[in-house]
Design brief:
Layout (H helix, E strand, L loop, with lengths): L4 E7 L3 H19 L4 E5 L3 H7 L5 H9 L2 E6 L14 H11 L4 E7 L12 H4 L3 E7 L7 E9 L2 E7 L4 H16 L4 E6 L5 H17 L4 E6 H10 L6 E4 L1 H14 L9 E6 L5 E5 L18 H13 L4 H16 L18 H14 L2
Parallel strand pairs: 1-2, 1-3, 3-12, 5-10, 8-9, 8-10
Antiparallel strand pairs: 4-5, 4-11, 6-7, 11-12
Helix pairs in contact: 1-10, 1-12, 6-7, 8-9, 10-11, 11-12
Bound molecules: nicotinamide-adenine-dinucleotide, 3-isopropylmalic acid (IPM) and manganese (II) ion.
Manganese (II) ion binds next to helix 9.
């Protein structure tokens, strides 16, 4: 049987830098654990624009539809800020999400013990934290019509539309309830039903799906603004949070700081099962292309490495290998190995992106 296939789209800025470390990890699993993948690489974002004049070519889109999993680095950067909106690097990423129909975006926020002191919150607020934000990823205000900039009464008007169908809400709710059953069995749904009709529908549908099929899971509802506050006040009250595309974008960046750094947060974007039973899937760190540190060997590769770990778990049914990789990351952090983003104002001596990758490989070897 052919090996499972992975398409790597490293993208821009620190994307290729962190992806180099992920490739070391993929090679390690091939060499040492007999877990081999057919890996191919292509362009996305500004890197694709530079070659093809578009942030994602049709050929790359077609490849992404065929592979078992896509691994994406990051897209965007100041060089591309001047481009027309339709060809901005971020449009390439949004096209992948939309056309692969990756409606369920899993963004875990887990606080590694070794980093509990480093969070901007008090240690006892974050120590042992393990929550999962499920962000709806293919609809809502990111994609709703009408949209655009029009002229009305001699001035310009910017328009975006929040729009959710019942079935879009239902499928992401199901994904959150299913996940909760395998974790702490609690779901908190966040919207703004107090001011938005789409929020009223969201709340109704999540409640109905719960009552019909997931009554064993504890469900609560919260307004998203209050949710943001509770996330900072006492994040350990949550297990799974399910929310829409925009609120999920904001809440997951906030959750990143609970864990210490944006450089630590992985994500999985999952769609419906393919013919081989695996979900359509793309794995990517939550962070962006970090233009402020790109090209300097400073980026933390852990978010991207943990995204590959999520691929092992969610696409390839290799939970034990994912545990092995996560344990190696934990060991390296416990040993005090730190990229610059994991050092506080008091400083210390940071390792480079490559040194962090090498330390994780060494920890994998040591645990064999
Ligand atoms: P960003 O996530 O790129 O950076 C925010 C801050 O976090 C920066 O100070 C950066 O240095 C730091 N940071 C991020 N990742 C890090 C890592 N791995 N190691 C160490 N430090 C890290 O967000 P931004 O600055 O708002 O956006 C920059 C560009 O990235 C924009 O073009 C934006 O659209 C794009 N972006 C892309 C994605 C993606 O590809 N998924 C996500 C977010 C932002
Ligand atoms: C993310 C990013 C993207 C988003 C951008 C780059 C399109 O911020 O993945 O969180 O807004 O979804
Ligand atoms: Mn974001």
């Amino acid at each position: 049987m052919a090996n499972p296939s992975i398409l790597i789209l490293a993208g821009d800025g620190i994307g290729p830098e962190v992806m180099t470390e992920v490739k070391k990890v993929i090679n390690w699993f091939g060499a040492k654990r007999d877990v081999a993948f057919d890996v191919s690489e292509d362009l996305v974002g500004g890197a694709a624009y530079d070659v093809h004049g578009v942030p994602l070519s049709d050929a790359t889109m077609a490849k992404a539809q065929e592979v078992d999993a896509v691994l994406l680095g990051a897209v965007g950067g100041p060089k591309y800020d001047v481009l027309d909106f339709s060809v901005k690097p971020e449009r390439g990423l949004l096209r992948l999400r939309k056309e692969m129909d990756l409606y369920s975006n899993l963004r875990p926020a887990q606080c590694f013990d070794a980093l509990a002191d480093f969070s901007s919150l008090k240690k006892d607020v974050v120590a042992g934290l393990d929550i999962m934000i499920v962000r709806e990823l293919t609809s809502g205000i990111y994609f709703g019509e009408p949209r655009g900039i029009i002229t009305e009464n001699n001035e310009r008007v910017g328009i975006n539309t929040q729009r959710y169908t019942e079935s879009e809400i239902e499928r992401v709710a199901r994904s959150a309830f299913e996940l909760a059953r395998r974790r702490g069995n609690k779901v908190c749904s966040m919207e703004k039903a107090n001011v938005m009709e789409s929020g009223i529908l969201w709340r109704e549908v999540v409640q109905r799906v719960h009552d019909e099929d997931y009554a064993d899971v504890e469900l609560s509802h919260m307004y998203a603004d209050a949710g943001a506050m509770q996330l900072c006040r006492w994040p350990k009250q949550f297990d799974v949070i399910v929310t829409d595309n925009l609120f999920g974008d904001l809440l997951s960046d906030a959750a990143a700081m609970l864990t210490g750094s944006l450089g630590m947060l992985p994500s999985a974007s999952l769609g419906a099962p393919m013919a081989n039973g695996r979900p359509k899937a793309m794995y990517e760190p939550v962070h962006g292309s970090a233009p402020d540190i790109a090209g300097q060997g400073k980026a933390n590769p852990i978010a991207c490495i943990l995204s590959f770990s999520m691929a092992l778990r969610y696409s390839f049914d290799l939970g034990a290998e994912a545990d092995r990789l996560e344990a190696a990351v934990e060991k390296v952090l416990a040993d005090g190995v730190r990229t610059a983003d994991l050092l506080g104002p008091e400083g210390g001596s940071p390792v480079s992106t490559a040194e962090m990758g090498d330390a994780i490989i060494a920890a994998l070897d040591a645990a064999l």
